Amino acid sequence: MSDTQGNQENSTYDVVVLGAGPVGQNVADHARAAGLTVAVVERELVGGECSYWACVPSKALLRPVLAVADARRVDGARQAVTGAIDSGGVFARRNRYVTDWDDSGQVDFLKSIGAELFRGQGRIDGPRRVTVTRDDGARLVLTARHAVAVATGSGPVLPDIPGLDEARPWTNRQGTDSSSVPGRLAIVGGGGVGVEMATLWRGLGSHVTLLARRPLLPRLEPFAGELVTDGLARAGVDVRIGAEVTALRRPDPQGPVTLTLNDGGVLQVDEIMFATGRTPHTSDIGLETVGLTPGSWLDVDTTCLVRGVEGDWLYALGDVNHHALLTHQGKYQGRTAGDVIAARAAGRPVDDAPWGDHATTADQHAVPQVFFTDPEAGAVGLTAEQASAAGHRVRTVDVDFTAAQGANLYADGYRGHARMVVDLDREVLLGVTFVGPGVSELLHSATVAVAGEVPMRRLRHAVTCFPTISEVWLFLLTAYERA
Ligand SMILES: Cc1cc2nc3c(=O)[nH]c(=O)nc-3n(C[C@H](O)[C@H](O)[C@H](O)COP(=O)(O)OP(=O)(O)OC[C@H]3O[C@@H](n4cnc5c(N)ncnc54)[C@H](O)[C@@H]3O)c2cc1C
Ligand SMILES: NC(=O)c1ccc[n+]([C@@H]2O[C@H](COP(=O)([O-])OP(=O)(O)OC[C@H]3O[C@@H](n4cnc5c(N)ncnc54)[C@H](O)[C@@H]3O)[C@@H](O)[C@H]2O)c1
Asked: Where along this sequence does the record place binding of FAD (predicted)?
């Protein structure tokens, strides 16, 4: 429904979604499937950071690097890998997966579900109202009968270092959309973006220096970061733990960047990339008009309803709520919140008990994550340290993959390690971590066990196929039973 006042158009929908990334699209899809009318506001590309400058291009670029690394671990296949990776072919592959940064396919998806797309910057303007400012300056007002869902994602945080602007650093954007390989690349930050970008650009031939304040992948079990550090070093990445950049210089815009480091050393590179964390896209979305602080992460309950806002109409999903900065977890929140909004709109009961239909319980207990490094690292649930800190009485079981024949048949001289964290009181798994080639596809088995709270005694009946990498489960369970 729409009407016009002066030159400002006003329209009313059941739900207004801010941001058409993967998360915004999921909440829209679920609300539409329940029969609600939905407006989606997007200021850039429908598909968001994930589709064009994060998950999809990074994995399109990494896959050839990891495929070649896998082939090199198999006698007979290794001899067929004789040359360097063809970066032109890799970039062309990436361009196909990001559809040349053209979002028409995803626009068609929104049309197909019957959601209305509004292009422009969306801002909340008091309860249940959103203004959209288009590039040509035109403004329209959207009113939400039931809910406004914020899914505006996050952007890179850059440290405040002298010379930062002059250095014109890369962020995840240039790290995923560049079509030339820098001769020398410094990457700052040892989280997920840093380790994947180091794997990728080294694989394409760059001389990469990875500067990390702390050990790599600090949110995972410590052995994951250690094995990934080792893998990067074997690939030729100069990994420097404890390093920080204190100043940057790039006097000639076409010339190299000079980094001053905290140990007083100097490093010269052709590009520098920052992978030093994310900040929510909430500074310019009108949070102050509903009593919230601009620029803050949005604090939500288990149904993704924002706390501290009267009237139960504002939801926040995906990166902006800071539960887990991962596409799949944000999409889970989007599916859940879409269903919650529909239930509340229809006056139906909301099942927000733990593991209920309308609760994002997995955000607290079973978040899975895979890093596409060499070796791959995958984890779900709590680490041993997190589980103990949360007050659980735990047993930690560790095994090397080398004993699993399936793993060795997959890669000669397979190197990998797994850990499971068992809750001794309930005899269920709290967390599992795998590190090794090919473990990315193994992780979901652990996610099912953790989210399903499958009793340890039942897990022994989940027989692993011989000979597959999954045999690691047999070694883990045997070690648990015999301890
Ligand atoms: C290099 C990199 C690799 C990654 N790899 C993975 C991976 O392999 N797997 C994984 O699960 N996660 C990965 N992530 C994390 C993942 O990208 C994010 O968790 C995901 O994009 C979050 O989705 P979202 O929909 O919340 O936000 P986004 O994808 O950022 O989408 C938000 C959308 O909102 C729009 N928007 C923002 N503000 C407004 C406004 N005011 N008005 C209108 N529109 C607005 C933006 O333009 C954008 O389109 C990676 C991140 C990075 C940086
Ligand atoms: N495959 C995947 O699922 C995948 C891949 C990449 C990123 N992601 C997600 O995207 C999000 C963002 O990743 P990220 O790596 O940018 O952030 P992050 O927060 O995971 O890691 C950033 C790292 O940079 C370090 N750091 C911060 N400031 C620094 C400084 N000035 N100097 C040196 N080091 C500094 C931090 O200590 C931290 O270890 C993460 O939450 C991650 O889960 C997921």
From this structure: 59, 122, 152-154, 319
DSSP tag of 95? H
Q: Considering only CA atoms, which of 1, 374, 409, 371 is closest in space to residue 191?
A: 371
- CB of 94 closer than 8 Å to CB of 174: no
**Ligand 2 probe mutation, 213, 240, 246, most atoms within 8 A of CB:** 213
Count of C-beta atoms within a 10 Å radius of residue 343: 18
Ligand 1 atom with the shortest distance to the CA of 197: 1
Residue-averaged pLDDT of the chain: 97
Query: What average pLDDT does range 277-289 have in this prediction?
Result: 98
* Numbered residues of the known binding site for FAD: 59, 122, 152-154, 319
Neighbours of 336 (CB within 10 A): 27
- pTM equals 0.97
Say yes or no to pLDDT of 426 above 90: yes
Name the residue of 323, 327, 444 whose CB sits within 8 Å of the most ligand 1 atoms, as the mutation to test its pocket.
Answer: 327
If you take atom 19 of ligand 1, which residue's CA is the nearest one? 326
* Domain range 375-482, CATH architecture: 2-Layer Sandwich (3.30)
d(CA 154, CA 416): 33
Residues 6+ apart with CB under 8 A from 321: 297, 298, 299, 300, 304, 333
DSSP 39-84: EEEESS-TTHHHHHHSHHHHHHHHHHHHHHHHHTTSTTTGGG--S-
* CATH code reported for the domain at 12-47+103-155+280-362: 3.50.50.60
Give me the CATH code for the 164-276 domain, please.
3.50.50.60
**Upper half-sphere CA count for residue 271 (Cβ side, 13 Å):** 20
Closest Cα partner for 127 from 112, 111, 141?
141
- Tell me the binding residues for NAD(+): 189-196, 277
| Bridging pattern class, strands 257-261 and 266-269 | antiparallel
pLDDT tens per residue, range 309-334: 999 999 999 999 999 999 999 999 99
Q: Please, where in the chain does CATH 3.50.50.60 lie?
A: 12-47+103-155+280-362, 164-276
Compute the distance from residue 277 Cα to the ligand 2 centre, in Å: 4
Q: Where does residue 124 fall: left (phi above 0), alpha (psi -120 to 50 degrees), or beta otherwise?
A: beta
ipTM score of complex: 0.98
Q: How far is the CA of 11 from the centre of ligand 2 (A)?
A: 40
CA dist., res. 464 & res. 246, Å (int)? 51
